[in-house]
Structure formats: structure tokens, C-alpha cells
């Protein structure tokens, strides 16, 4: 059985102040960073048959990620425009392209079932298919990022083993209350990343707190996905939540020293950049 499947979103991160694009997307990044941790990883998604799509597919394969079920179709690969301010990333528009045009087959669901954990995200457009994915996946992880409300997270809670939230602007009491509601509905672990305040991992047995690991920041893009990869792979290995949070923080800190989510920067000309939305 393979360790992890990244199922869902992909994107070309367009660094508009550098004219460089990087392969990315939450579920792509988590799959690649799992492979870099030494575990068998796969990615299942939909890419456009264009230069960004070929860049993403080539990077996945060079990292040893299984891509046999990934589709490349006519159309535009997802893109996100990124600008930087003091090494922190600011998003300036995006287009999902073909990345959410899903037609999963019985063979795909059989492939999903061959992984210890399946990770998807709020950017993947898979919510209508999540009940079927839940039936196939031994464990299901979902990143809500900052794209969540109390009601939208509660609707998915019964199907999830692990839920991740970006909640840097939320007080701890609100984070714990949301997590406890999700746990009451069926989620096993809720993880809240809170920027410089560290992270919380909440279960029905209590609240675990993790601190950030100091680092020299080159680029914050992908640090949250590195945290998720570190958390899931340590948790699957059976470590306690205290050491799991620390391992996740270490991976996030290490990723901050990387341009793009995991490298592979490729120049592009401004004329190739999609119009700002």
C-alpha cells in the first residue's frame, strides 16, 4: 500500500515580479513533499496540455510521484499570480482552468483505496464526490485553508479523519470551538495553523499546542503544505501529536528556504501571463 495520494488541485504559481513560474497546488505539494520524506506518494489530478501542465507533470515524475491516473486534457492549466513583499507571498488573481473538471472512474476509486491516506483540499472542486472518495479512502485528509465557514466545515466533518485550517487571525477559543464541533460530527483530528502563534491539534482527548521553528525565510509559498506533509506522514507512522506537531513545524521551516513550493522554477515572458482577474 502506498503512503499518500494527493487528490485534487494543481496550479502554476506565476511569480510576476520575477517572470518565473513554479509547479504547485496544495495536493501536488503535499504529494511531492511526502516523496521527499522518503515515502511512496501519488498524485491524481487534471492538467491542461500546455507548458504549465507539462512543467507540473515533469516535476512530479522527477520527484518519483506516481502519476498514472493523472489526466492531461485540452485546455488551460490552473494558474495563480504571486507577488512578494518582504519574502511573504501575496496572491493577485487565479484561474482554476481545467483542474476541477472531474470524471472519476471505478479504476480511479480502486487506485484511491491503495493508499494509507488521501489528501485533498478546498481548491479541488471535489466536494460533490467526497462521499465516494470517503468510501474508498482508508483515511481522508482535507485542507480548508482559509476558505471556510463554520457551516461549510461542519458539512464535511462526518467524512474526514483529519481537517486542516489556516486560522492565524482567529483567537484560540474560536479555533477550539470550531474543532470541537467538527469532532462531535465525526472528524478525528482538527489542526489549526496560526502563523507565528504556532499550531493546535485538537481531538476528543484535548488540545495539543505546537510552536513554530525559527528559520531564515526566503519564500513562504508552500510552507503550509509542507506542514501538512510533515504532520500526515508523522501521524501515519504512529507518533504522538506533540512530536507530530513539531515534525510538521520543522518541515514548514525548512520549506521557507525554498523558492516556490518545491523548486523547479521556469522562466516565462510577460506576454504568456494570463490577464489579471
UniProtKB/TrEMBL annotation:
Keywords from the named record: Kinase, Transferase
Entry-linked PROSITE patterns: PFKB_KINASES_2
Residue span(s) of domain Carbohydrate kinase PfkB: 15-261
Superkingdom, taxonomy of origin: Bacteria
MF terms (GO), sorted A to Z: kinase activity
Cross-referenced PANTHER family: FRUCTOSELYSINE 6-KINASE (PTHR43085:SF41), HEXOKINASE FAMILY MEMBER (PTHR43085)
Family indicated by similarity: Belongs to the carbohydrate kinase PfkB family.
Name recorded for this polypeptide: Fructoselysine 6-kinase
Organism in which the protein naturally occurs: Deinococcus hopiensis KR-140
Taxonomy of the source species: Bacteria, Thermotogati, Deinococcota, Deinococci, Deinococcales
Amino acid at each position: 500500500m502506498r503512503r499518500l495520494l494527493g487528490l485534487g488541485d494543481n496550479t502554476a504559481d506565476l511569480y510576476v515580479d520575477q517572470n518565473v513560474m513554479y509547479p504547485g497546488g496544495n495536493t501536488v505539494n503535499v504529494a511531492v513533499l511526502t516523496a521527499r520524506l522518503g515515502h511512496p506518494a501519488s498524485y491524481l489530478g487534471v492538467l491542461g496540455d500546455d507548458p504549465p501542465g507539462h512543467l507540473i507533470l515533469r516535476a512530479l515524475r522527477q520527484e518519483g510521484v506516481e502519476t498514472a491516473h493523472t489526466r492531461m486534457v485540452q485546455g488551460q492549466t490552473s494558474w495563480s499570480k504571486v507577488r512578494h513583499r518582504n519574502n511573504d507571498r501575496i496572491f493577485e488573481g487565479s484561474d482554476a482552468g481545467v483542474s476541477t473538471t472531474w470524471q472519476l472512474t471505478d479504476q480511479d476509486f480502486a487506485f484511491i483505496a491503495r493508499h494509507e491516506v488521501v489528501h485533498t483540499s478546498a481548491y479541488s472542486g471535489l466536494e460533490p464526490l467526497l462521499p465516494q472518495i470517503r468510501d474508498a479512502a482508508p483515511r481522508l485528509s482535507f485542507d480548508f485553508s482559509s476558505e471556510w465557514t463554520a457551516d461549510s466545515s461542519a458539512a464535511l466533518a462526518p467524512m474526514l479523519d483529519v481537517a486542516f485550517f489556516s486560522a492565524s487571525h482567529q483567537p484560540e477559543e474560536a479555533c477550539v470551538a470550531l474543532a470541537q464541533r467538527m469532532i462531535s460530527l465525526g472528524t478525528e483530528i482538527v489542526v489549526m495553523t496560526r502563523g507565528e502563534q504556532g499550531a493546535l491539534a485538537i481531538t476528543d482527548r484535548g488540545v495539543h499546542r505546537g510552536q513554530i521553528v525559527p528559520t531564515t525565510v526566503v519564500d513562504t509559498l508552500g510552507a503550509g503544505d509542507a506542514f501538512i506533509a510533515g504532520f500526515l506522514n508523522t501521524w501515519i507512522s504512529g507518533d504522538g501529536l506533540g512530536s507530530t506537531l513539531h515534525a510538521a513545524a520543522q518541515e514548514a521551516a525548512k520549506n521557507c528556504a525554498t523558492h516556490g513550493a518545491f523548486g523547479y522554477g521556469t522562466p516565462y515572458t510577460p506576454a504568456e501571463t494570463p490577464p489579471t482577474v
